[in-house]
Amino acid sequence: MSGTDMGTAGGERLRRWRMVLGGGEAEGTGCALAGRDAAMDAALGALYGGDAGSRKGSGARSAGLGGSAPNVARWLGDIRTYFPSSVVQVMQRDAIERLGLSTLLLEPEMLEAVEPDVHLVGTLLSLNKAMPETTKETARAVVRKVVEQLEKKLAARTRATLTGALDRSARISRPRHHDIDWDRTIRANLKNYLPEYRTVVPERLIGYGRAAQSVKKEVILCIDQSGSMAASVVYASVFGAVLASMRSIATRLVVFDTAVVDLTDQLDDPVDVLFGTQLGGGTDINRALAYCQSKITRPADTVVVLISDLYEGGIRNEMLKRVAAMKGAGVEFVTLLALSDEGAPAYDREHAAALAALGAPAFACTPDLFPEVMAAALEKRPLPTP
What we know:
The protein has helices spanning 3-21, 35-48, 69-82, 85-99, 108-111, 118-126, 133-169, 182-188, 230-244, 270-275, 285-294, 316-328, 349-357, 370-378, and strands spanning 171-172, 193-194, 199-200, 207-208, 217-224, 249-256, 260-262, 302-307, 332-339, 362-365.
């Protein structure tokens, strides 16, 4: 490598370190930024400068967005110019959490400037009651854009996976060749193995049934709408709408805090479902499960999915008794601590252990895994826990 190349490489390293360290007397690179680099550094400094805002060195980042809508709108435009969408979403989330910008999202011009994502939808839903009428139309447009993106990503695979599970749950004894379940057929006919021919004589064929047009399974989604479950509420509403679109599954969607609201009638539009929720407040899982239990008509063909961090404000022992009673009647009971890409949140470990002891293990589930979890529940086989 020539001296010029080494100098160029060394300069690039210094530039990168300067961008990471943020300037100021302590960073020590001696590298000055200009043009696009300086603009990126200013955008980062406005959000992450924090205590660095008090530094007076000529290279220090200037912290803060000033708390005004024009400044924030300008900053939102800058970060969309300089960073990819995935980074923009993280920076927006950090700005809302670190700088308390939630109230600015009540202004239509601010909503038009943001990059829509699941976390922004959660924030908007938490502000729903405080939202002026002039903002609600814009907010619904933002939420609808995110919902449509999620449906496009998740719907086809979910329908295909669950349709396959429903087909497999209806076995037939005289299948056509392409309907034969060879794995089950071979296992059922092992006694007919002929050593001299090294083969199994399939006296009894087992096949997959064809999905009937009538309802074959019932699914109840029971969703904790406390503030920490915001992303889960968004994903569950989208999945609820997808399930409701399948003729062979009767879907019910119930949200709860200390009260219980049945939003099943709104499942044709997940945006209506989301604006029917009320993020925040207490939690009464027992009351929610009592309502769900009252709606079960065919226990052996029903899957109840509880999505909650399990912090129970109601009667703990009654909650566990209800789960045990449902499982005893033949209901498949699934407990998800979260339905999001974020992993397991803080949750009540004692309640999770008690549910696991009842045969209902509690675990966090990503949206990509959810169709497989539901397929397993519909077929009454072990859940694919992470």
